[in-house]
Amino acid sequence: MQLTVYTDYSLRVLIYLGMRPQQQATITEIAESYGISRNHLVKVVHNLSNMGYINTSRGRGGGMILAFTPKEINIGEVVQKTEPNFVLVECFDKENNTCPIAPGCALIKALKAAKSSFLDVLNQYTLADVVANADQLAGLLKVDLKTLPKG
Hints:
Layout: H1 5-19, H2 27-34, H3 38-50, E1 54-57, E2 63-66, H4 75-82, H5 107-122, H6 127-130, H7 134-141
């Protein structure tokens, strides 16, 4: 199973903001820290804002900040909300399934259990868990946490 780049970037934005939960950041700042496209992040940030995970402000001095504490943001929930679907194999998509053995295939039961287990594990983690090593992450992203207020 592979998560989409969209979900990956959504998690990266939340991780960046979670390292510094009371400090505003910009899309450009995050894009440069991760070495990823600013244009890709615009849509991700817009969606995270619409879902209520972040608050954004426009204009000079604008940016984004977490709408909740890192402990209140569940990783499994974010993944489920940002992934367009979890169609692991064709038979998961009832409308477009053309597999001739789907009605009698036992593999689908195993794959559904695996998907459920995957999400169950992610549901055990919050953003706080993921940014518990904020000092190490900040070093890797070249972010100076010393000048930021503690969250």
